Structures are given as C-alpha cells and as structure tokens.
From TrEMBL:
GO terms for biological process: tRNA threonylcarbamoyladenosine modification. CDD domains: ASKHA_NBD_OSGEPL1_QRI7_euk. Binds 1 divalent metal cation per subunit. InterPro entries: ATPase_NBD, Gcp-like_dom, KAE1/TsaD, TsaD. Its cofactor is a divalent metal cation. The lineage of its organism: Eukaryota, Metazoa, Chordata, Craniata, Vertebrata. This is N(6)-L-threonylcarbamoyladenine synthase. Keywords: Acyltransferase, Metal-binding, Mitochondrion, Transferase, Transit peptide, tRNA processing. The keyword Thylakoid does not apply. It comes from Muntiacus reevesi.
Length: 439
C-alpha cells in the first residue's frame, strides 16, 4: 500500500504502524469511508412513516417512506388509531430500508433524530418508542425534533440560505409565518386561528366528492382542487378573502370553508344534485376556492415581509421567503406568492415537492443542523415524551399584532389580479389589487 506523503512529495512504503494510524483516523468500515457524521431521521407525526440517513454535508444517503394517504382518503380523514396501527406495521421496514439504501449500519450512526412534537399523539408515540429502542440498543445520542423546525430548515439542505429568513409553512396540519433567526430561534409572526389551508382544501374536496371524480380519485384534497381548478373559471364565484380588516399576519380558513359549504349546498339545489354526487360547477368552485386561499395567504405574507423589512429584521438586499408544506406544492399559490416577493424585492424559495411534504430527510437534516450547532443532543433519554400540541419556547408568542403599523408604499404593493380580471369580478366593489386594506 502506498500513501502519498504530501510534505515530502514522494511515494513511500509506510510501516504497518503508520497504516493502522492512518486507518484509525477515519470512521472506517470495510469497503466504506464515512468522512462525515451520519444522522438517521425518523418521522411519524401524522400519516407518513418516513426515515432517512443524511450526512453532515447534506448528502442524502438513503430514504424510505410509507404514505397512508390512500387509506385515509377512503375513510374521509385521518382516524388516529388507524394511523397508529399503520405506523406500527411499517416503521421497522421503513427504517431498515433507509439504512440499507444508505449502506449504513446503526452502529455507524452519529445520532438518531426523531419528531416528538407537534402531531397526533398516537402517531408520534410509535416513532418515539421505536427510536428509543434503537438509541438504547446502539448507545447513540438522541435528538428530539420539532416538526415545524424541520420543515423550516429543509431549505438549507437544498440551497445556500443564511439566517435570518422568513418562512411560510402551509400544509394539512400547519399554517404559520415565522422569522427563522437560527437553528432553534424562531420569531412567530402569524398563524392560523383555526384550521390549516390544506385541511380546508381537503374538507372542500370531500364536500365536492372529488374522490369520485375519475381524474382525482387518488389525489389528496388540495391536489384535486388544483387539478380541477385548471378546468374551471374562478370568476363564476366570488368568495371574499378572510380577515380583510384584521391588520396582522394571522390566517383563518374555517369561515371561508363554511361559506363554500353553503354555496355548494345552494348549487346542489339549483342543479338538482344529491349530496355525494359531483356538481357540474365543481371545477369553477375549485378555481374560486384556490384563488381565494391564494389571495389570503399572499396578503398575510406580504404584510409579514413589509413588517420584517421596516423593523430591520430582514435586509431588503438579502431578504428570502421560504415556502414549504404540502400546500406549497400548489403552483397557483406559488404564483401569488411570487407576485408578492417580486413587488418587495424578496427572493422566493421552495424546497422540491418531495421535501415540501412530510419526509424523513428533513428530520435527519434537522438532526445534522442541531449536531453542528451543538443544540439539544441527548445522551440520556430518561423522561423524554412526545408533545402533540407543543408550541415550544423557540416559537415565541405571535408578534403579528404589531404588523398593523406596517406602511405600504405604492411601489411595494403587489397586484394579485390583472386589470381585466378586476373588471370581470362578479359584484366586487374594492379589489385586493387596488385596495390593500387588511392585507
Ligand atoms: O405537509 P403535508 O404532506 O402533511 C401535513 O399536513 O403535515 O401536507 C398535506 C396537505 C394536505 O392537506 C393536501 O391536501 C395538501 O397538503 N396538498 C395540496 C397540494 N398537494 C398537497 N394543497 C394544495 N395544492 C396541492 N397541489
Ligand atoms: Zn408537516
């Protein structure tokens, strides 16, 4: 065996002792060299059983996921004991698959990171108890993960993004706007006062019976709405964006859902259609719902960007808005956000679709971030519990109410509609494009 001696610049045949020293300086396994720390991430907070191995440099060495979406679509929503049972049936296989794909054995891991909050209690419990067994068996450090923190930090795996940045998390279970100042330093700017946008879209899709639509039967509610919306005309319905008068960065979706429910009931009467059958106007309703949700999300985000810029929390020259969560894969909503970021000279970044939804990679990466920062690495897991409704110390009370003082100079006002669309809007007096009240 020849080793290049850099100092002398010559090849030499080293002694056996030198070879052992050389090998000992690496984390060595026959056939493999791991120069970086390795983290196994495990996610079971809702309806996905997911695991991944990510190294310190952000290389995804292996991943596996089992989605329960199909089962929950059939039952019309997530039934927690069913989700728990499916996690139990799949967790061992999924973790094994992630490890095998990465060609890493548990003994080679630097740490195990697992979502412990927030989420469904029964689902979180499966991931946590499985992880603690592994931690105990292989004597590894344990890194408890906050699911939102993981969503927010995912972008740093795919893009070079420095702190601070603004994050908008929109999915079936989450809806929040926060300023990310460090790995575990979040300033909450706004959140949904009731349900999350994905939850609302799922409920509307169920009410429209889109599962019976031949093109949408295997899609999540939000995806089905996006798909149908492309065939519809949103101008046939006029739903007002929620919270027009509330000058903060919070969100609300249940009032809008109620209005849409009433509209669907009225349409069923008009069309002589029984509940459970598909309305001929379903695509138009989907388009109008998607548009209203996009406007609401874009307006609150606009306010948050202006607030951060005016308070010096974000520098206009380097401001970044990261959008993640299942709903972030909606291209119409992204377009609305792009209009806002263009108007405010902010950079819009979204992780790739598979990293927007729940996955094991984001949990492993959050573990890497915490390992690098030396934050929350446990060598003793006694007393560790999952926390379904946890809003931790790192998510400080919403400061969105201060956003009422945000000034909107003309050149920072986004136009969410074209002038022509404005004129066509049914019965609308003031429009979000010309009036930024309540954004
Ligand atoms: O992040 P995620 O996988 O799970 C959590 O809720 O945490 O997000 C799932 C949600 C569902 O409500 C689903 O309807 C919604 O994201 N979703 C979409 C789209 N794809 C998934 N919503 C709007 N447009 C989409 N294309
Ligand atoms: Zn999530």
């Amino acid at each position: 065996m020849l080793i290049l001696n850099k100092t002398a610049g010559v090849f030499f045949k080293p002694s056996r002792r030198k070879i052992y020293e050389f090998l000992g300086s690496f984390h060595f396994h026959p056939g493999k060299l791991f120069l970086h720390k390795l983290v196994l991430g495990i996610e079971t907070s809702c309806d996905d059983t997911a695991a991944a191995v990510v190294d310190e440099a952000g290389n995804v060495l292996g991943e596996a996921i089992h989605s329960q979406t199909e089962v929950h679509l059939k039952t019309g929503g997530i039934i927690p004991p069913v989700a728990q049972q499916l996690h139990r049936e799949n967790i061992q296989r999924i973790v094994q698959e992630a490890l095998s794909a990465s060609e890493v054995s548990p003994s080679e891991l630097s740490a195990i990171a697992t979502t412990i909050k927030p989420g469904l209690a029964l689902s979180l419990g499966v991931g946590l108890s499985f992880s603690l067994q592994l931690v105990d068996q292989f004597k590894k450090p344990f890194i408890p993960i906050h699911h939102m923190e993981a969503h927010a930090l995912t972008i740093r795996l795919t893009n070079k993004v420095e702190f601070p940045f603004l994050v908008l998390l929109i999915s079936g279970g989450h809806c929040l706007l926060a300023l990310v100042r460090g790995v575990s330093d979040f300033l909450l700017l706004g959140k949904s006062l009731d349900i999350a946008p994905g939850d609302m879209l799922d409920k509307v899709a169920r009410r429209l019976s889109l599962i019976k639509h031949p093109e949408c039967s295997t899609m999540s509610g939000g995806k089905a709405i996006e798909h149908l919306a492309k065939q519809g005309n949103r101008l046939h319905f006029d739903f007002q964006p929620p919270m027009q008068r509330a000058k903060n960065c919070d969100f609300s979706f249940s009032g809008l859902q109620h209005v849409i429910d009433k509209m669907i009931m009225q349409k069923e009467k008009e069309e002589g259609v029984e509940q459970g059958q598909i309305l001929s106007s379903a695509a138009d309703i989907a388009a109008a719902v998607q548009h209203t949700v996009a406007c609401h999300i874009a307006k609150r985000t606009h306010r948050a960007i202006l607030f951060c810029m005016q308070r010096g929390l974000l520098q206009p020259s380097s401001a970044v808005l990261v959008v993640s969560g299942g709903v972030a894969s909606n291209l119409y909503i992204r377009k609305a956000l792009e209009i806002v970021t263009n108007a405010t000279q902010c950079t819009l970044l979204c992780p790739p679709a598979r990293l927007c939804t729940d996955n094991g990679i984001m949990i492993a990466w959050n573990g890497v971030e915490r390992l690098r920062a030396g934050l929350g690495i446990l060598h003793n897991t006694e007393g560790i519990r999952y926390e379904p409704k946890y809003v931790g110390v790192q998510l400080k009370p919403s400061i969105g109410q201060y956003a009422k003082h945000v000034k909107k100079s003309r050149n920072l006002r986004p136009k969410l509609f074209t002038e022509e669309e404005q004129r066509k809007r049914v019965g609308s007096k003031a429009s979000p494009a010309t009036s930024n009240e309540g954004t």
